[in-house]
């Protein structure tokens, strides 16, 4: 490998929340890396070689080792750079809860937000909106339990669930602008609203999260980011 | 809690591969527990209370702490009973690879085996069969990489991926009986065929895996196990 290239590389897309996750973990651990913006319409050889199974971003390359899927990458970073702040909770039960809710967000909740864009008819749309709010109420309960009265899911510091859910804040705000629906409603989910404000003003987070207005512009320009963007 | 009840409980179903996973992890760690067979047609209050989000088995209850989803439970068991043999690899990259392939098995490969039962028409069936074999070839490559020339995915000992894939061996063999298709074909996937034989004769595994013939009988009796059985 040439001396000018970084030993840590991230193949991603600035607007992909799964890429944002890895960027947040790397920032928290103060890891320098080379960010390689992928073109999903014309995937690079490097992406196809490093993620031959799914052919999707993000891929984190550490030396000659590629790691795929955002939550797995975060755990790898936490396991490898152990001298930085911990991302996963240290208690096994807290860790299990963090993994449970991260899986809920990826498998159940965020897919609803993506579905909303393609919903046909008022009834279908209303049904998805209701499910999104039901999910937010569950996540509010999760926040109360996981944060144990502190500022963030991770307690006093940004942790696994702060990253797993926080990466979507740009898209949550973007869909608020596009749909006129206020997801982050203080009367419904006061804990999460406060959490989102605190997280977005955190020094490790605020420069990494993509701006909602830029995401709206991107969404308006394209047919969406579905193709080739994975978790 | 009454003195007669066990401090460790598992809510599950003998035929559920996800339940088998937890049973395998508990056996490996020599943990005694109470097994509570669930009736998915009439879910118990305990199940609904301990997994209110998904209402699915397996749920492992440690004292008053419920943990849901089989792979999360296994990691919890490994993190909690640290004096037993390790289930996850100790090296961060090996751990990431084990997590990657476990997710592939759950999200991509095993759903194909379930799809096969409901496939309509020869063409649809042939397409799924082809994808199942393609997946097995990928898993063969994963075995070669992860096992590093040793007997099992976990090396010399039963590990995370041995559990994650091994739990399906009963169903793999049951579908061989029902369809006449030989999935575990030495000419195609010699590494995995040898692995399956070694794993099934391991003392921690052989009494836990459900018998293929019993699964065939169950499948023939019921319309399948889809409803309420999660990962």
Automatic annotation (TrEMBL), chains A, B:
<dbReference type="InterPro" id="IPR004045">
    <property type="entry name" value="Glutathione_S-Trfase_N"/>
</dbReference>
<dbReference type="InterPro" id="IPR036282">
    <property type="entry name" value="Glutathione-S-Trfase_C_sf"/>
</dbReference>
<dbReference type="InterPro" id="IPR045074">
    <property type="entry name" value="GST_C_Tau"/>
</dbReference>
<dbReference type="InterPro" id="IPR045073">
    <property type="entry name" value="Omega/Tau-like"/>
</dbReference>
<dbReference type="GO" id="GO:0005829">
    <property type="term" value="C:cytosol"/>
</dbReference>
<dbReference type="GO" id="GO:0009407">
    <property type="term" value="P:toxin catabolic process"/>
</dbReference>
<dbReference type="GO" id="GO:0004364">
    <property type="term" value="F:glutathione transferase activity"/>
</dbReference>
<dbReference type="Pfam" id="PF13410">
    <property type="entry name" value="GST_C_2"/>
</dbReference>
<dbReference type="InterPro" id="IPR036249">
    <property type="entry name" value="Thioredoxin-like_sf"/>
</dbReference>
<feature type="domain" description="GST C-terminal">
    <location>
        <begin position="91"/>
        <end position="222"/>
    </location>
</feature>
<keyword id="KW-0808">Transferase</keyword>
<comment type="function">
    <text>Is involved in the conjugation of reduced glutathione to a wide number of exogenous and endogenous hydrophobic electrophiles.</text>
</comment>
<keyword id="KW-0216">Detoxification</keyword>
<protein>
    <recommendedName>
        <fullName>Glutathione S-transferase</fullName>
        <ecNumber>2.5.1.18</ecNumber>
    </recommendedName>
</protein>
<feature type="domain" description="GST N-terminal">
    <location>
        <begin position="6"/>
        <end position="85"/>
    </location>
</feature>
<keyword id="KW-0963">Cytoplasm</keyword>
<dbReference type="InterPro" id="IPR040079">
    <property type="entry name" value="Glutathione_S-Trfase"/>
</dbReference>
<dbReference type="Pfam" id="PF02798">
    <property type="entry name" value="GST_N"/>
</dbReference>
<comment type="similarity">
    <text>Belongs to the GST superfamily. Tau family.</text>
</comment>
<dbReference type="InterPro" id="IPR010987">
    <property type="entry name" value="Glutathione-S-Trfase_C-like"/>
</dbReference>
